[in-house]
Amino acid sequence: MLIKTIFSGFGGQGVLSMGTTLANAAMLEGKYVTYLPAYGVEVRGGTANCTVVVADEEIASPVASEPDFVIAMNQPSFARFQSILQAGGLLCANSSLVNTESARSDIEILAIPTSELAEKLGTIKVANMIMLGALIKASNIISYEAMIKNLNEILGEGKAKLIKLNKEALELGYNYVKE
Amino acid sequence: MKRLMSGNAALGEAAFLSGCTCYFGYPITPQNELTEYMAKRMVEAGRVFIQSESEIAAINMVLGASVTGARAMTSSSGPGMSLKQEGISYLAADELPAVIVDMVRGGPGMGNISPAQSDYLQATRGGGHGDYKTIVLAPGSVQELTEVVPLAFDLADKYRNPVIILGDGMLGQMMEPVSFDDLKPPAEYEKDYTLTGAKGRPARKMHSLLFDTKLLEEHNWKLSRKFQRIEQNEVKYETYLTDDADMIVVAYGIGARIVKGAIKRLRQENLKVGMIRPITLWPFPAKVLQEMAKTVNDFFVFEMSAGQMVEDVKLSLEGKGHIHFYGRPGGVIPTPVELFRIISRHYYQAHALKRKK
Amino acid sequence: MKKVYTRPKLLKEAHFHYCLGCGHGIINRLIMEVIEEMNLQEKAICVAPAGCGMLLYNYFEIDVLESAHGRGAAVATGIKRASPQNLVFSYQGDGDLAAIGTAEGFHAANRGENITIIFVNNGVYGMTGGQMAPTTLLTQVTTTTPAGRDALIAGHPVRICEVFAVLDGTSYLERVAVNKPSAVIKTKKAIAKAFQRQLDGRGFSLVEILSPCPTNWKMGAIEACQWVDEVMSKQFPLGVVKEVAC
């Protein structure tokens, strides 16, 4: 197993923390994992993306030229990354901000209205965790149960107060995706 | 215990655990996280951290700290490394230990901030003025980064010579699980050359100015003998599936990692390709390559530059074997699939040629 | 007979390589006198420059490290931070500190590094044969200003003490000279004061010393000494430029 996922969106949408959360969870499961941020000129409100590779064996390249999964939190990211998604790949789009029409017929698109869902929890800040929950349900990259169990460790000391909220957000996204 | 850390941060922690007491650095992408990590870690522990006014100042602060016997280090990338060369030359001339990190980015000039391997010749040829060498270590993963840091400090002290850790932007930026459980701080060496005030001993002077050509020649030969000792004793490399290989890829750092991915695919197609990955770029594993050339004819060099390490492979093989080359300069990172296709094409061509003969 | 003067023990019994009438020899001697009188030989570390002062390790019986041209303040910073118990000073000329090493000197000063710079200002590059220095006076003839320094082509003489004085990190800046006995006595006091302030942890100190260079000024030794008073010190006024009380 070797799964490459690109997380993308505006800076400030929690795109990079989606990536590190997945990477941490995969590490705690004993998987091989790499996390590579697209680094560049620091601009507030610019686009952000990162690549997470999860595997059962040593990872050759942390770069995904043809990812298995793409998370697009905004329209420019949707436009940019849908084209490199593998045939048969899955694109999880934040349908609150993204028009999910695509010319490609060889990919699956999962529309998650993260903003609307986040409103139920009272803060837009957890839109990213809702999306991550949805991705885990749809992809089975990692075990959802193990992730919830390890959430303290995954999110780290700094976010101790936010464990409950994040758990709710992950759950909301996870349950939004039907079997 | 494993932690998910970026190469830059992991390097900082490894340096801290290796007993680095002085860090001096100037911001430059893609190694800023290292400077930022040290700003916190060193200061909290009461050790020395300075964000210097330039890379030139940073390397000279390293020189000053090193002369007192402190374990000192600095880090930079491309353009900043060019500025540090003056100080590195003085460190080598004064025979002072220091660890210098280069997270290589695309060049020349300002270039870009993408990962590259284009500082190979600068690092392995001395880089600054005069007759000298620096030991160059090239790790290929975040975990290995943490392993070469104590080694770098150890070699620096053991040989009283600057040591360069040659990473690249990707190695610095990417996060991987890393453990420090097995990190052993390097040995403490007796330092009889330090300047700490002439207390209980005659005054000492340390200088590289040697007006008398005889003296300078003698000093240069002394350095040269030291470099020969390093070449004899400190070569490090990894081999991968070389036993039955009839083509051997030579690649290092992040490039070698991508090659490994390519070789896994090549092996699935029954192409007998192996790899040698130099971990010390200087001293280069020349003897091993020569030994391999007794049974293998085809050597494939891959590097993320327009062709720098390939010079060392040519020098090592001394005309034996056939050298294939594939380079991607400018900060481009090829995929394992791309390398798989290119290596297999070269492999088949080499076989066709053999059949003709 | 009463002994009024003797060579400081810390000044090695070697012949100076300096030209006749040069101020460096006096300054070298003064530094060793001060270190000897303050009993600092076991603590002192000197950073030597590139330039006429570069061979001072042949004369100083204390620990000396050579630095690259202009990098003295950065090297001294590294030493002092790694080993704060030492007395650390760099000895730098005008080309060294006011041209190629301005950034290193300026920022060491701005950080308030607890080091001392002995800054020898003789208005020319001596070791390389008398080229224009940043401190060369307007109309002064050097090998690279054969028609005299012209501000339009080569800018103006740099007043390092005044430039450094505006930095909050600097603690003690004084300009002195070594062209006559009374000036030499003042210079010695200034060096001693700078060192004492460093020992007291009072931060960055710099003593700028106007020093005659008869060879490159194309003057006799006496004439050069007079020129310091009559011409040079008009551009570079003597005295304490800054002294922070605590």
Q: What does this molecule look like?
A:
The complex is a heterotrimer of chains A (179), B (357) and C (246). In chain A, strands 2-3-1-4-5-6 form a six-stranded mixed sheet, sandwiched between helices. Chain A is of the alpha/beta class and 179 residues long. The longest helix of chain A is centred in the N-terminal third of the chain and has 14 residues, at 15-28. The mean pLDDT of chain A is 93. Chain A contains seven helices and six strands. In chain B, the strands form three sheets. Chain B has a seven-stranded mixed sheet, sandwiched between helices. Chain B has a five-stranded mixed sheet with strand order 10-12-11-14-15, with helices on both faces. A two-stranded antiparallel sheet of chain B has the order 1-8. In chain B, β11 (247-250), α9 and β12 form a beta-alpha-beta unit. With 246 residues, chain C is an alpha/beta fold. Chain C has one domain (24-125, 159-243): Rossmann fold (3-Layer(aba) Sandwich), CATH 3.40.50.970. Chain C is built from nine helices and nine strands. Chain C has helices at 24-37, 72-82, 94-100, 102-110, 151-154, 160-165, 181-199, 214-217, 221-235, and strands at 44-48, 63-66, 87-93, 116-121, 124-125, 131-132, 170-177, 204-210, 239-243. In chain C, a hairpin with a 5-residue loop joins β5 and β6. The model of chain C has no long low-confidence stretch (mean pLDDT 97). Chains in contact: A-B, B-C. The interface between B and C is large, with 40 and 37 residues. β9 of chain B pairs parallel with β2 (63-66) of chain C, so a sheet runs across the interface.
